[in-house]
Amino acid sequence: SKGEYRHFMLKEIYEQPAVISAALEGRLSDTGVLVESFGPEAAALFARTRQIHIIACGTSYHAGLVARYWLERYAGVPVQVEVASEYRYRYPVVPEGTLFVTLSQSGETADTLAALRYAKTLGYIGALGICNVPGSSLVRESDLTLMTRAGPEIGVASTKAFTTQLVALMLFTLALAKCRDKAPLSADEQTKIVQALKTLMPICQQVLALDSEIETLSQAFAEKHHTLFLGRGAHYPIALEGALKLKEISYIHAEAYPAGELKHGPLALVDSEMPVISVAPNDDLLEKLKSNLQEVRARGGELFVFADENVGIHAQDGIQVLHLPHIHEALAPLLYTLPLQLLSYHVAVLRGTDVDQPRNLAKSVTVE
Ligand code: M6R
Question: Which of 54, 61, 106 to mutate to test the pocket of ligand 1 (most atoms within 8 A of CB)?
Fold first, then answer.
């Protein structure tokens, strides 16, 4: 039941601190990931992994895009990420030592399953499935599995399923780094990320406590027809996910761009009728992002920035800022997802749409 919540989506957004800690439960030591969480054969398979192909659809695909930044940076493994409906109809080249990874909340998405079945004919060293539904087709047909433990997700718009996928993918990154000889991640840095994972629950709670401020911000969007989401690095996929949430439940046209692409086209769209949303965590791309935001401001674009409290981005004319608590850089994509979910939710409620059951969409896409 929805309990005290008006919609399942809101309830599921609020469940995130709890399900994120469920996703971590029993899978970490003080210094690293327990690789056996992925199954008894995982350590041997990860040690042999030279490349990774990640296949998924929709929100799960966005989780895969975040993971690419993590896996290449921390585990030092080249990664390709692709939507299942494209992958299944091309003739992919599979280099030796490639691990196939699928991400799916339901484990029943037709294209993702078809991609997995196709991949089995292509010479991968194995298939890892990251999934939320035990006993689903995806789980049954994968060699290794990691359950995301988000619990049932009723709202069509995926929220807690996404953030728990990110947790699972960070565990995968750390496990892979541990099993490989030359991973870039030092033992010290690994310990820091593990410690940061253990503080995720209270930090997510702090972000959810910003809900009424986000609700106030949402009023600026209710009458708009278009929005632009900007992010850099691992926050580019977070911008994509923010835009997907807004379009699917509020029916407002939303596009996401890597902030560095602005000048290559989308800047032409920016005017006072096109709000621009950006996530600005404290990472080494911050200065570049700040100058992209100035470019938007100079064209009269109204900016909404979710920024780390320490980065020195403050509200001014045409720029509204919501400060988020500081978090280890590696985990920022997870945290910055939450305000974007709440923003879409409140915009949709203002517009009076059917939040849990948006038009034309089904929770589980079991046909092509
Ligand atoms: O169950 P799956 O994760 O395989 O579903 C994939 C997409 O259909 C799904 O993520 C969809 O994009 C979301 N409901 C959007 O919020």
Answer: 106
DSSP 247-263: HHHH--EEEEEEGGGGG
Q: How far is CA 179 from the centre of its chain?
A: 24
Contact (CB, 8 A) for 301 and 270: yes
Half-sphere exposure of 203 (CA within 13 A, CB side): 23
The model scores a pTM over 0.90: yes
Looking at residue 316, what is its pLDDT?
87
CB-ligand 1 contact for 158 (6 Å cutoff): yes
How many other CB atoms are there within 10 angstroms of residue 122's CB atom?
Answer: 13
307-332: string of b/e by CB count within 10 Å (b at 16+)?
bbeebebeeeeebbbbbbbebbbbbb
Alpha helices in the chain (DSSP H): 8-14, 16-24, 42-47, 58-70, 84-87, 110-119, 137-141, 160-179, 187-198, 200-208, 211-218, 235-250, 286-298, 332-351
Instruction: Point out which residues pair with 128 in neighbouring strands.
Output: 101, 144
Compute the distance between CA of residue 17 and CA of residue 13 in angstroms, rounded to an integer. 9
Residue with tokens 């921390």: 74
Of the candidates 38, 356, 18, 347, which has an alpha carbon nearest to the alpha carbon of residue 173?
38
| Cα–Cα dist 289/292, whole Å | 5
* Cβ of 164 below 6 Å from ligand 1: no
Q: Which helix (H) or strand (E) holds 321?
A: strand 319-324
Q: What is the ipTM of this complex?
A: 0.99
- pLDDT-derived band at 94 (thresholds 50, 70, 90) equals very high
Residue 235 C-alpha to ligand 1 middle, in angstroms? 19
Mean pLDDT along residues 340-366: 94
Q: pLDDT of 141-161, one tens digit each? A: 999 999 999 999 999 999 999
Taking the CA of residue 158 as reference, the ligand 1 atom at the shortest distance is: 16
For residue 143, how many other CB atoms are within 10 A of its CB?
A: 18
Per the annotation, the verdict on 363 as an active-site residue is yes
Choose among 159, 114, 158: nearest CA to 364: 158
For 253-289, write each residue's pLDDT tens digit. 999 999 889 889 988 889 989 999 998 887 777 788 7
